[in-house]
Amino acid sequence: MGTQKNRGQTVGRCSRRARFFFARHAPRGVAVLGHSPPSVAHGSGLDKLALESATPPHGLSGVSLTSSEIARSLPSHAVTSFTHVPFPHLASVKVREIFDLGDALLLVASDRLSAFDVILPDGIPGKGILLTQLSLWWFEQTRDLIDNHLFPDQAGEFQRRGLTDRDLQLRSMIVRKLKPLPIECVVRGYLAGSGWSSYQKSSQVCGHVLPPGLRQADRLPTPLFTPTTKAPKGQHDAPMNDAEGVALLGAERFTTLQRLSLALYQRGHDLAARAGMILADTKFEFGTDASGKVFLIDEALTPDSSRYWPAESYAPGSSPPSYDKQFVRDHLLALKWDQTPPGPRLPADVIQRTQEKYLTAVARLVDGVRA
User: Fold this and answer.
1) In DSSP terms, which residues pair with 279 in a beta bridge?
2) Which fold has domain 4-177+326-370?
3) Which residues sit opposite 368 in a β-bridge?
């Protein structure tokens, strides 16, 4: 493993390796919300907040970046805490921090990495930027299906509230204050993960009876809505059937979320296919305003909330390679870790390769859909 100093130097080279990786493998330019290298992201936190005048990041004002420019926007070290944001801190939710802006919330995506519901000691440099920018892009692609929690004109909102630090802008969203609904809306289009495990035992997935003879990673006859509970911190989400969902939300609200989730999955699947990717499954979260109107909240169709496979290597009968953090999970499983805190440290090569997976997913999706 080497000394901590050497380890830090190795991890610090992640973004440079990412730029080299993209120079060789990236698709043509990518339309992603991003900007030039951050000015203040160092070590494990945001060392200071730049309050001087700054130009809004590209993307926040609708300007496209190339994939190499995206890679250059990433910090050299994982940013995992935000101690100088000048607004009241409301909560930490796994990889995000929530701040109170009075009439709105500031959601900040850190570079922290969770696996098996444990926050690992090492983050992935720039992961929060990539997830935020991809979510913003997906919100734009789906706004005809459902309104989302974003305030209009994010760049203007940042400037108006004095949030001019570029790294902070790139990993943040200013959103409406909504009431989150107590359900995780999972949609499965392919037989993978826990769904495959369940099918092997009972020929069912979350109460849905499936035809015999399906293979791992087979496409399902029709996408399945398989919601789960929102478990308290430290506990695992549990599957719920339709009757439990109706009892929790009421028949009309449950049916609405089912319809919206399936429509959003289909949009994501169709656009991913244009980029040479398969959206195997995903998870959505919804919230309501005072009038009861439903909004799409949290993140949308990112590698953290979704399972993406490269279409060119898709072959049912085995577990396809993916663009999510399964690579990290496989590494941790090989360590025989008991999946309780504290989590083990990650080697520099695992951090680097995980960052590359996130970068590749963003580049293929956004550039592939534009092409």
Assistant:
1) 308
2) Phosphorylase Kinase; domain 1 (3.30.200)
3) none
